[in-house]
Design brief:
Length: about 425
């Protein structure tokens, strides 16, 4: 690809989004595994299938407070004709039962306590009445009623979690209940982040006329964390080829590099030229809005992303290309973990054939159903359009706009809980 002709001339052609993403994903290799405590594994991606070394529960236990009985002894019991059973003792939680239930006997039992020998059901306390050393049973039970059987939840040797599964609190609970203290997970990809542009100043400085506060690095670092990577900020680099080359070499010390700015068609947008000079530039210019100047190269087998400098375009290009690349490195079962919902478009939105448009929308619940309300955005620098949005609606390349009332698929932004 001859990127030299792009600067000061513009793109002669654009790569389609799916083609561009496929060129990246097919080259990405999974990161190495590491072992971590289950109690510190939240959000990590499993590196292997997990099988339970024990039954859950590992004994028959009561699912209710009541009385352990032989079910057959309760047959025919009713409010008008209760059956009397002798109470022979009590079974408590956390202790083995030291009694045996014989015919026409019952043992008081708590929820979670082990079922005593020969009992096969539990009568709920609500259907009994205690009278001295006996109970009256007012409702029959069948064998197994109100009993959680050994292995009812998980059987020994059963696969409980699959390779590529992301660990949530419920997966942690399952692992710990099965007696698993450590798990093998994919190492977090280390992502070098660079902001390119001679006009940039860091966030602790007041910008002068013509200068721009460099927020992209911090935005990208947060997005890297959201999708499972480990960011490393390398700072601001001016539009000087020698400085950019040094930044590229520094980024190659990590698993992935993400640059923002310096990737369009301006006189000082050197980055794509340098990336092509140093490695394989697999595309520059994507048929998408926002984010069309995106470029991606592979240097020494490592992906280097060159994203647009405008904040919204940077975020959108990250979601489309960088996020799934991080997930591929992790070996995640889903490259796109976002939640999708169906909604009706609240008004007509135009688009251009041959280009994929990413429309920022706000979700509104109405009596007529869920609406996707397009946000009127002035350009890729209008950060408020992302702040006010709940998600994104994609308009495919072969579609010329979306009509009012048309059903659309909304990709919601990841929900972050701190």
């Amino acid at each position: 690809m001859n990127t030299e002709s792009v600067r000061m001339r513009g793109f002669m052609e654009y790569t389609k989004v799916n083609d561009a993403l496929n060129r990246i994903i097919t080259r990405i290799q999974r990161s190495e595994p590491e072992t971590v405590p289950v109690t510190e594994s939240l959000g990590r991606i499993l590196y292997e299938d997990i099988y339970s070394p024990r039954n859950i529960p590992h004994f028959d236990r009561s699912a209710m407070d009541g009385y352990a009985v032989i079910a057959e002894d309760t047959f025919g019991a009713s409010q008008h004709s209760p059956i009397k059973l002798k109470v022979i003792g009590e079974v408590r939680v956390g202790k083995p039962p030291n009694l045996k239930v014989s015919k026409m006997e019952a043992a008081q039992i708590a929820t979670g306590a082990p079922i005593p020998s020969d009992a096969d059901a539990v009568v709920m306390v609500e259907y009994t009445k205690r009278i001295d050393g006996e109970i009256e049973v007012y409702s029959p039970v069948t064998p197994g009623k109100n009993v959680s059987k050994l292995g009812e939840d998980v059987k020994k040797g059963q696969k409980i979690l699959s390779n590529g599964k992301q660990i949530r609190p419920q997966e942690e609970t399952m692992l710990l209940q099965c007696g698993i203290a450590e798990v093998k997970v994919a190492k977090r990809p280390r992502v070098a982040i660079v902001s390119s542009g001679s006009e940039l100043v860091d966030i602790d400085k007041a910008p002068e006329l013509g200068q721009v506060i460099s927020t992209n690095s911090y935005t990208l670092a947060s997005m890297v964390r959201v999708y499972g990577g480990e960011p490393k900020l390398l700072g601001i680099v001016p539009d000087i080829p020698e400085e950019l080359e040094r930044a590229i070499e520094e980024a190659l010390k990590y698993d992935m590099g993400v640059f923002s700015g310096g990737t369009s068609v301006g006189k000082y947008d050197y980055l794509p030229d340098l990336l092509e000079k140093k490695g394989e530039l697999i595309f520059h210019g994507v048929a998408m809005k926002p984010g069309s100047p995106t470029a991606v190269s592979f240097l020494k087998g490592k992906p280097i992303f060159s994203l647009p400098g405008y904040p919204v375009a940077t975020m959108m290009a990250f979601i489309v290309f960088v996020a799934p690349s991080i997930r591929k490195m992790l070996g995640a079962e889903k490259l796109d973990p976002r939640i999708f919902i169906e909604a009706k478009m609240s008004r007509k939105v135009a688009s251009t054939l041959g280009r994929r448009d990413f429309v920022r929308v706000k979700i509104e619940e109405t009596d007529e159903g869920i609406l996707a309300v397009p946000l009127r955005a002035g350009g890729s620098g209008v950060v408020s359009s992302m702040v006010n949005a709940d998600g994104i609606v994609e308009i495919p390349e072969n579609v010329e706009g979306i009509n009012e009332g048309e059903r659309v698929r909304v990709a919601l932004f990841p929900h972050i809980v701190v």
